[in-house]
Write the structure tokens for this entry.
Amino acid sequence: MRKIAFLRSVRIQRADPYIQQAVRGLAADGIEAGLFHTSGTAGDEDFPGHRQRLDRGVTPRELADAVAAWGADAAVSISLPCENALRDAATKAHLDAAGIPTVMTPLAATMLLVDKWETKQLCRQAGLLVPDGFRVDSDLLAGRGLPVPGYRDALRVQAERLGYPLMWKPVWESTSMGIRTLRSPADLDDHLAPGPGPGHGSEPVSAVVEQVVEGDLCSVDIVGRPGAYQVLPLCWTGRAGAEPVFTFADLRWCGPREEADAAFAEVARTLVGLCESLEVHGSVNIDMIHTDGRFVILEVNPRIGGATTLSCAASGTNTFTSLARMARGLPVAAGPAQRVGWAIEFLAGDGIPPAVLAELRHRVRVVTAHELVIDGASHGDIVVLTLAEGEEDRTVKALTELHEATGFPAADVMGKISSLLTR
Ligand SMILES: Nc1ncnc2c1ncn2[C@@H]1O[C@H](COP(=O)(O)OP(=O)(O)O)[C@@H](O)[C@H]1O
Ligand SMILES: [Mg+2]
């Protein structure tokens, strides 16, 4: 094994610092890593290996050809969100056929998991809790194909059965795009009206309509292959309720939460069973709502997650290293990955001044601080820091002093961090 290709759709900076560690680890074993990416720029500090920027619209065939032309012995998908996971799953089919084994969930399973309705069925069949809901088909709404005169009324009846408020969720889409709360039958009718809808994009899209669940949002990454799956620690990512919130709006954290962790153990076993049955290969990232001591599954993303850095930081593991080990055919850890402390992630506004960042690094353990870009739009800098259990008071004190001297972290973030760490 001499060369491993990493397929990437979003900026590689979001994988800082774990991707660099993984690439250096490979280099130490005499293996060259190559980045085949379709967004942003990457320097040596971002990916210390071969780098090839491809057009955003590259086809799976072209992507596979580029990887093969470089001479890769194996490949790994680290793309997100779901539309790019699908691209990579198709690329995997081409690469596997060309004798370049690729760490990515097979296309058939990926196609189910990128679809929120299919995922709901899979989860329900596996014995997991899901919000009750129904599917809305855009072809039928638009009158394409068979005319179904009763369709809109049938959907209204379904909605009445579930009761308002309801969530309208495009079956595709990620990072809460297109998700709307339906508070009344009139809101539903707005979404069922012909022509460009109030959802995302200019044409109505197929959607899942489901019950609103109130509780704490959380997510978990499961990394492995059939026979060996590692379950990373639970990450808490905000509140869920009738108001949809931007994925990164709240503090995101991983830390002790005994009752929830205990209740999750059983859910984790069921999720691993689901991964086994789908032959998941690589990473899945599962979004859930914790409510009344139970976990309701929102989605199972067939790819690395938006909170991967947080999971790695909190567990002292490196998902990119795990994926590279799978590409090399080396054994990977199985079972729950123990949490080694706290990891906290927060948005920090536009450009932290270098002097302030240096001061932050001096006071606490900063895992990464980089710009968060989603769909080409900047959301300012995002910071991940870690601390050991027992260091809570010292950390709050260090951050409070920094806040008093520089205004960073902002007062609202500071308030959330201190209430989390001094519960
Ligand atoms: N049934 C629901 N009840 C309450 N909030 C929901 C529900 N479904 C989705 N949400 C909110 O929308 C966000 C995104 O939903 P999710 O199903 O994870 O789709 P995606 O991440 O692909 O946009 C969740 O993090 C949550 O804030
Ligand atoms: Mg999600």
